[in-house]
Task: structure prediction
Amino acid sequence: MNQQTLTSSILRKKPIDTIEEENKHSGLFKSLGLWQLTAIGVGGIIGVGIFSLAGLVAHGNGSNPGVGPAVLISFLVAGLASAAAALSYAEFAGMIPRAGSAYTYGYVALGEIIGWFIGWDLLLEYIAIVAVVAIGISGYFDAFLSGIGIHMPAWMTSTVDEGKGGLVNIPAILVCLLVTWILSRGTKTFGRFELIAVGIKVLLIVFIIGLGIFYINTENYNPFMPSGFGPVLAGSATVFFAVFGYDAMSTAAEEAKDGKKHMPKAIVLSLVIAMLLYVAATLVLTGMQNYKDINPTAGFASAFTGVGLPVIATIISVFAVLSILTVMLTFLLGVTRVWFTMSRDGLLPTWFAKTDRHGTPQRVTWIAGITSALLAGVFPIKAVADLTNIGILAAFVVVCVAVIVFRYTKPGAPRTFRLPLMPLVPAFGVLASGFLMTQLPWDTWLRFGAWLAIGLAIYFGYGRRHSLMNPLSPRHQEHARLDSGS
Result:
């Protein structure tokens, strides 16, 4: 194959006008309305960011100094970068209501190789997100048991790297398997559970903020930025994990009753609701307790214990476990839908694209769930969080670039939402996301590079030849026969 043929094959783009027809035969059920979609978005954004990462970044760890009350700025910086990407996602979601999210947007606007890299990237990142959230739940579950006088042995509640005498995080493994089972029951069941659980979560956070205000000691805000601005920016790269749940929610576009109308609204609504709660919660957390005393894995539980309210701390630990479950559900949904879509497009074996009577791709659901359980059982929370962030930031860069390219190459494509100040907003998203990527440690870049290298080998060994867009592939020829009625 000559260079020109190779280049044209890897840069081929998925036609936008074929997507509507594909959606009709996907096997996925359309059962999600606006508020269920918004709940999935809020469920993916709010959770471990408030209940675990806020305390982790404020307190610091061995390699990262605590940023103290300035964790608020970390969230705002991450939120600004995320908002630019969110508007880009909203424009694409209004045009292309298809499972796959950033993978599909990159494929349509920039070509197959870019779509592949982002899809392959998201498979790892979403699985890792499920794992890091499970680790956060494990911390609150341990805090809850300690509050009622039950102390679990260290070997089964932490990993070797945490230095607590642990071997494997069994609670984190079990919660991954529980969430996998819930998602396997079908999108309609999952949507109802998510709506109820997110409602409980928001009420819990409002309760925490409302009660915590009365126990704020303003002396805890001094110094506001104890370690300088550099660690605050590095902290924003870590807490970025907490502000992009709408990305995974957009993978459910094919299961929305009216994706073109509801997806853009749900994306914007979920981010606005989440950021308002984050700002208030971080102010309360760092005002109730000196940042040096905050428990980095169960921040609010330690804060209420510190002000003499251990019963409230126990209640928070119970409901934190329930509310963080919604984050896991959102991102596990995300990885299964990206995997499903890549398989349907022929870039991965079609064996993964089979759905059952619930309209659920059971095979990828259980494979992803078990993999996340293994990650959660053996890796510390910060290493997994950084790994997820670099992948999502890379996806955000691609989506922001893609929305600019698509606006000028396909100006007549019907859009139910148009992001403002084109191209300034998506350009800011590219710069902000790229900058946050530079704040992540070198070993995270190394792991990310290794994963992409594996993906490149799989693409050229399998995906490019079997792609539905390749006229010589068995998948393309099979579809051609079906279209001709033979």
Summary: The mean pLDDT is 81. Residues 183 and 189 are 8 Å apart (CA to CA). The two ends are 31 Å apart (CA to CA). Residues 112-147 form the longest helix (36 residues).
